[in-house]
Amino acid sequence: MKVKWEDDLLTGIGIIDDQHKKLFARISSFTEAVEQQDYEAIEDTVNYLIGYSIQHFGAEELLMIRNGYDDFKRHREEHSWFINKVYDLHKSLLKKEISQEQLNEMRDILINWTIHHIKVSDKRIFSHIR
After folding, report:
1. How confident is the model at residue 129 (pLDDT cuts 50, 70, 90)?
2. Looking at residue 37, what DSSP letter applies?
3. Domain of residue 37, CATH code
4. How many Cα atoms within 13 Å fall on the side-chain side of residue 80?
5. Cα–chain center distance at 41
6. Which domain holds residue 107?
7. What is the count of structural domains for the chain?
């Protein structure tokens, strides 16, 4: 399963779009690692996602707060849900209790959730800011 950046995901905020593009590169790497059962690459991506989630979501949430975004709480709940999924996967990797089913589920979440989140939720923020 290939995943790649498409310009219809652009929000119009350069720094956010750059971070989203880097995320897509990592999702692509994760997808390949899952297919090849490359646990070192899987762990590398999960570690990246931990830092990315905190930094990127924090930047988005700061923009929402500063601009009085009305749907902040719901959007933040989406971020929290994603962070919890990454945390659960990380915990399973640390315990060496990871199944192929869990990896496939996370791959699908990374692809589907991220695309939907950017196209719908993130674009709402940036249309509000403009």
Report:
1. confident
2. T
3. 1.20.120.50
4. 6
5. 17
6. 9-129
7. 1
